[in-house]
């Protein structure tokens, strides 16, 4: 049988099966018990056997109480969707989806997943209907007196159909064995809403639990961290751009030049002043040329910033020379009553450098 060949190729049966260990074969499915290692294996892979009406009931009830019914159902179906990798290996190895599903169902019935039937499959509409009898989910819910739904198994069916149809799918249950129906009936169709969107809908509907609120808070914290990181990176890029757009150049021995392009806003002026004063102190420069050829418009803040930079340079014992003042800028500075009486001005950067060289002799 091809299903046995598939598992033999996936698992080293000789390495994981010993004739000295108790074992049994049920419908072609091999079970093996290893008491020394505390393991039960099916096809050589560890499995769990659990009493449904006690241990499983306690585990599922505890989870449901912690997160609430709606979130519990979403998580169970999502868990089913995300647990089909090995299952799909069986299905995809068969001649057809139907044959692969029948083979997988033969394995499922021996392991407590119930009796699976593919009731209908419409490839054109990308829909499928499954019937399940005596699935562990229906049995533990019947013992509890609830009908939350066979969501993990439904999630597996949705995962199979997603692989088959090539689109995300979601499972909706229409019959419930826990309610007294003969079987669980599960409809699978393409999904129009993501799991995240469904969780958000819980929050907006007022059906949020403490777990939902914790998830929402964590998402908000992550978004804030990401926003702060983005702002920090943007500021770093801005600082880099500003440093490149206003490089401090040593154009002669003891002469620094700072070409300024654009306006000198408060933050930018402060940053440039700090960089320039540090460089004056480091190089022991005697002259600093502020070239404003690239400044087309001057307002009160820009004029004031230029004067503050010039005064700060003089306090370190260097002389400030301003070059490249445009006629329109000169008129504006006069109108603003900017006091340039004590500051040397030159027409161009070349004239400013020539002045510094003469003054150094």
From TrEMBL:
Instruction: Give the highest taxon in the source lineage.
Output: Bacteria
The answer to whether keyword Thylakoid applies is no
CDD domains in the record, alphabetically?
STAS_RsbR_RsbS_like
Which stretches are transmembrane?
none
- Indicate the segments forming the STAS domain, all copies: 254-333
Alphabetical list of InterPro entries matching this protein:
Bact_StressResp_Reg, STAS_dom, STAS_dom_sf
* Keyword ATP-binding appears in the UniProt entry: no
Q: Report any Pfam family annotated for this entry.
A: STAS
Q: Which UniProt keywords apply?
A: Phosphoprotein
**Name of the protein in its database record:** RsbT co-antagonist protein RsbRA
Which organism does this sequence originate in? Enhygromyxa salina
Record lineage: Bacteria, Pseudomonadati, Myxococcota, Polyangia, Nannocystales
